[in-house]
Amino acid sequence: xxxxxxxxxxxxxxxxxxxxxxxxxxxxxxxxxxxxxxxxxxxxxxxxxxxxxxxxxxxxxxxxxxxxxxxxxxxxxxxxxxxxxxxxxxxxxxxxxxxxxxxxxxxxxxxxxxxxxxxxxxxxxxxxxxxxxxxxxxxxxxxxxxxxxxxxxxxxxxxxxxxxxxxxxxxxxxxxxxxxxxxxxxxxxxxxxxxxxxxxxxxxxxxxxxxxxxxxxxxxxxxxxxxxxxxxxxxxxxxxxxxxxxxxxxxxxxxxxxxxxxxxxxxxxxxxxxxxxxxxxxxxxxxxxxxxxxxxx
Length: 297
Known about the structure:
The protein is an alpha+beta fold. Helices cover about 65% and strands about 15% of the residues. Strands 5-6-4-7 form a four-stranded antiparallel β-sheet. Strands 1-2 form a two-stranded antiparallel sheet. The protein has a two-stranded antiparallel ribbon with strand order 3-8.
């Protein structure tokens, strides 16, 4: 009787122990499953920022859109690196001025135009400049002394005139670009100023008889060819740009070439008309240049 009770008691204890183990195992499984999701999230939170930083670093690397030449062995060649490396340089533009002979000033534009046509027929520029008055200009000189001399000669002949000065601003700017482009822009300003200033001597030689009409047209054509070559180079580096300095400089060259072509197109044997057109262009180009410098500053 006692032995049976003992066996039954032990059997019940084993059943309780088995149930306890089963429950414990189930609890551990549940904890593992739940913690696995949480752990996964924790690991993700630790890893994603690292991956994101690496990806952002890759995206933040700017791709140089300048074409580079790679050597076969050492990567980028030294010549290509020097050619396309951007530099910053200062450019100083000197003010230009001319002293024009003003033959009349009108409040009515039509009166000014009528007087202008008469002046052109006599070899004057006939340039009408408006600044509140319609000023009719005959010719321009780089030297004030030359302008005063002409004014006094006209006065001696009973013709009244005044000196009207046209001056451009000077400018200082910083250019950041490939070295060859910086040099091109610098030379473009210098070449335009040199070519423009040289027009006065071309005109003087024509009017004094030191140069024939044929020689004068040849000089103008040579100047136009030089301007066109520079214009093409400016257009190449200006393609796709939205820079007012470069856009304006390219347009200045384009307009200068058109004005020089107008001189070439004048009737070949008409010295008076050619002289008039050169005088007109000489004044007009400086006003264009002045407007350009005012726009970029």
